[in-house]
Write a structure and sequence with these properties.
The chain has four helices and five strands, in the order ααβββββαα. The protein has 197 residues and is of the alpha+beta class. Strands 1-2-3-4-5 form a five-stranded antiparallel β-sheet, with no helix packed on it. Strand 4 and strand 5 form a beta hairpin. The radius of gyration is 48 Å and the shape is elongated.
């Protein structure tokens, strides 16, 4: 108990505010603190490594396994593992890996599938597409708002013609009505003048 009390007193003295002490006492205090730190670093061993290992296997339905993962760490920061999965082509792919201070280093068990080669028709279509794209891009660069002629379908043309025909008939009717109104107004004015005299 007394030794624990003395240790607490030393720790309190090491970590207390000593700015008010004369300089020779400050030097002694710093030497005591430095020796305490040296002792504490030597007396506290580094924590032991914490190795681990795990693995699991799963599947999409009971009795079927299509994914697997296993990993082992020695506790020093190096992790080794492997996992597998079923790719879209229904092939099992496996990846072995090592993760360390330098990064994650995967190694594929199978090379990834090559991309399919274009047929002649697809290659020609791609070339034509790129040519048209470049042509349109050049046109838009020189004239960003082109005036495109209006193209109308047969149905729209027929409806436009019918509308124009109806518009002409209505315009003629309005002109006739306007002429009749003017004639009536002229007759009324003449009657009003005749009655006044």
């Amino acid at each position: 108990m007394l030794s624990q009390l003395c240790l607490l007193a030393v720790l309190a003295a090491v970590h207390c505010d000593v700015s008010h002490l004369p300089s020779h006492q400050l030097e002694a205090s710093h030497q005591l603190e430095a020796s305490h730190q040296l002792e504490s670093h030597e007396s506290t061993p580094p924590p032991p490594p914490r190795p681990y290992a795990f693995s699991y296997t799963v599947g999409r339905f009971p009795g079927h396994s299509d994914r697997h993962h296993a990993e082992v760490s020695d506790g020093s920061g190096v992790v080794r593992g492997t996992y597998s999965y079923v790719d879209p082509g229904h092939k099992v792919r496996r990846v072995d890996y090592v993760a360390d201070r330098e990064g994650f280093h995967p190694v594929l068990s199978h090379a990834p599938p090559e991309h399919p080669v274009d047929s002649d028709a697809v290659a020609q279509a791609k070339i034509r597409h790129h040519e048209l794209y470049e042509k349109i891009a050049a046109e838009h660069a020189s004239n960003p708002h082109p005036q495109v002629p209006l193209r109308q379908s047969a149905a729209v043309l027929a409806a436009t013609q019918q509308h124009a025909s109806l518009f002409r008939v209505i315009a003629e009717q309005h002109a006739r009505i306007a002429a009749e109104r003017e004639l009536l107004q002229a007759e009324q004015q003449l009657q009003e003048l005749g009655e006044e005299h």
